Amino acid sequence: MNTILVTGVTGNIGSHVLFELLFDLYSKKEKAQIYVLIRKQRDISARQRLWDEVFTEQLIPKKIAPFYKEYVTEYIKIIEGEINNFTIPEEAGNSLIVYHLAASVNLSNTEKARNEIAHVNYNNTQAFFEAIKSRTKKLVFVSTAFSRGEIAGKITDDYHSVVNFDFRNFYEAYKMKVEKLILKIAKENDFSCTIARPSVVSGRLIDMPKYVSSRYIVFYSIGEFFKKMKKTYPEMGKIRMALNMEGGLNIVPVDYVAKGIIRASDSKEEQLNITLTKNVPIRYIIYSILSKCDVEMELVPDEPKNKTTMEKIFYKTIGSQLLKYSTSKKHYFESKLIRKLLSDIEEPDMEEHFKKVYDFAHDINFNNANITLEPNL
Asked: Per the database record, which ranges form the Thioester reductase (TE) domain (predicted)?
């Protein structure tokens, strides 16, 4: 019987990793002890957060709906604490399979962002590794496909043979710093480690109900911004959106990512990009989002200098974080290793489904509380 430790389960990918773990136990008729590390928030206990933020009716995949309550009670044990301050129970043993997903996703380049990323994603994670290093059999550390930084052309899974990096923000830089740290710790403590790197994560495209996500961020944030602005300023006028006309964004559904992370626990690969073989053209992404928001747009190669009032607000807020991705050099991810690992699962066509993926979030106003539940759920 495996003993598993998962961090970051209240996040989007983490919750889906937990769903996959439970489904694996059910479908394979296996048993496991799954420890989840959750911090309490003010007066909300870790246990309450598990039910309020992870096992919500709107988020539950249909495939685990009939049995998940029973399985949560039987197989999931909660450790209340921070990633830099927690205690693994003695009965968990010394052969843990660890999925480490807890992290801050802050794409800003401010000093405040740097301090947050350094503290949460590096210092706290370093403390976490110290706590688990002597009790771990396998670690899957979830990084980001963008820890390679800005690059043109083909991107392979091997980032660590590279010497020079052109990071777009502190988030990317510190993810790479942690990647190198954990491979060193794994070698020193003789446990296996796979670094799993998802690209931009969207709602589900494999498991029903489709399109659902626990959070609607990154590209969704563009739509959320303009939907609000259009309601407040219906005569906002044309928006000039800076992008690389030939560029694309690798967007991967969260359920595909979760399946890749679970499979990574049986992989001997040290580095694994959880990406799709095709990017979605950035022009199509922006067009789909802004047309849904009923915003008139003009695609331009660079950030406008003589901005309108609305453009100033956009480029100072959400645009300041996403501009470096929309104007990125043309590139693609090789994605051979992840396709080999998930060969029994058809690769989703994100370009074909992108409009439905975005429109779903837009129509529920980026809030799962607005999802109308089917009677059988």
From this structure: 6-261
